[in-house]
Structures are given as structure tokens and as C-alpha cells.
Amino acid sequence: SDETKRSMRGQAYAALEKWGDAIEDLEIARKAKPTSAILDQLARSYYELGYYDKALPVLGEAVKAAPTNATIRLMETNTLLNLGAESKNDADKEKYYDRAKASATEFKKLKPNDKDAHNLLGRAALGAQDYIVAEQSFRKVLAIDSNHCYAMSNLGKTYIALKRWSDAETNLTDATKCAPRMAV
């Protein structure tokens, strides 16, 4: 059938990382039979092209289809973080960061001892202005990997938000030593 051909071609384009070419075929395949693989590849295509607003609803479907797929959950959280960062409206920004924190929490459940999962939750919590969770998450990252420069920097930002100036200065100084070229 035409839908099967479109599905195969869309998946082939996605495998070749020809994201723009994959979208039309994968959208047709999604309407015909929204399998987990189709949803994953369509969401990834939108995500890789920076179309986060289009990726988000597809990622929602993909998470429902495969709730234990850590890669999809990671992409969903990063999409929400990107939408939050891009948002000009405070209410939308808050909504995206709160959703990112919830998604990152689910991702961390899938990878409980993973430094990247803790870092992702920290970033989402920082955006959601949940500074206690952000601090705990970044400290957990640094307990796993004491040379994680981004966690040091983000922990410093968290301490600034908490007005813990001495702690902020210590962490930001450590981040500068860790990655001298990183703008802290």
C-alpha cells in the first residue's frame, strides 16, 4: 500500500538523518498507523530540525506508546527545556519548565544512577525555579562525576538564585577552572 511505502521511505530518510525529507512520509505513516517507531522517528525529525513546537505533540504520543523508552523521554525533556528557553511569555515559560521537570523526573526513574539523568532534572528544576531540587540534582551529578563542568556552573546559578553568594562563587570558580573557555 501507499502508506507502507511512505512509512518505509520515511524511516529510510530518518535512518540517513535526512530529517526534512522524512517528515512528510512519516506524517502520512503516523496517520495510517502510529507505531512507536514511526512516532519516535517523526519526533526526532522535528527535534533535529529545531521544530520543537511540532515535536512536542508527537513526543507526547510517543511517550504514551512507549513509556519506558528513555530516549524518547530524554528528547521530550530537552524539547520542553528548549521551548521554555525560547518562550517570551512568563506563563508559557513556567508551563514548559514545569512539564520539563515532570518529564525529567520520569527519565530519572528510568535511569536512577545516571549522572545525565540527574543533570537533566537539575536543569529542568532550575528553569522551574525549584532550587532545592536543582541543588540536590546538581550535587548528585558532582558526587558521581566531580569534573562535570556544566553541573558546577548550574549549581553556581542555583546558588545565585538562592542568594548563597559564597557557594555560588566557589562553584563558578571551580567551573571556570574545569572549563576555562566556558562562559560562566
Overview of the structural elements:
By secondary structure, this protein is mainly α. Helix content is 80%, strand content 0%. The chain has ten helices and no strands.
Keywords:
184 residues; 10 helices
Short description:
The chain is mainly alpha-helical. It is elongated, with a radius of gyration of 19 Å.
Number of helices: 10
Radius of gyration: 19 Å
Distance between the termini: 55 Å
User: What string, H for helix and E for strand, traces the elements in order?
Assistant: HHHHHHHHHH
Structural class based on helices, strands and sheet pairing: mainly alpha
From the spread of the alpha carbons, the general shape counts as: elongated
How many distinct beta strands?
A: 0
Proportion of residues in β-strands:
under 5%
Helix content: over 70%
User: What is the residue-averaged pLDDT?
Assistant: 94
The biggest sheet amounts to: none
Q: What's the topology here?
A:
Layout: H1 2-15, H2 19-32, H3 36-48, H4 52-65, H5 70-86, H6 90-110, H7 115-127, H8 131-144, H9 149-161, H10 165-178
Helix pairs in contact: 1-2, 1-3, 2-3, 3-4, 4-5, 5-6, 5-7, 6-7, 7-8, 7-9, 8-9, 9-10
